[in-house]
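Protocol step 4 of 5: obtain the predicted structure for the target chain.
Materials: sequence only (see below). No template structures provided, no constraints applied. The aim of this step is simply to have a reference model before the mutagenesis design in step 5. Sequence pasted as it appears in the construct record:
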Amino acid sequence: MVIQVVNFNLEGIGHQDYLGATIDVAPAFKEVSGLLSKVWLSDEANNVYGGVYTWKDRQAMEDYLQSEFYDQVLGSNPSFVNITYKAYDVLDEQTKITS
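Step 4 output (structure tokens):
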């Protein structure tokens, strides 16, 4: 498994507008191949938003990053700026012990 942590800032929309948009788009993430879960993040005071994604494997994450869906939702959306992400390999054996 792979954990991907994504962060970005909002530009041109406020917190409430963002919340409404996320409710509308959230169901579409259930259809993303290889995505096991997504946790939505918000730090309104510092204008930092994002998500923690759990992927089946690194290829699933890369496929998503190259997809039209990613481009429409995040990649070329002018409301989201300073987009960064970091990917981490999950240590499966250790994680099984603590899960």
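Step 4 remarks: The CA atoms of residues 33 and 63 lie 9 Å apart. Helices lie at 15-29, 58-65, 68-75, 92-98.
Proceed to step 5.
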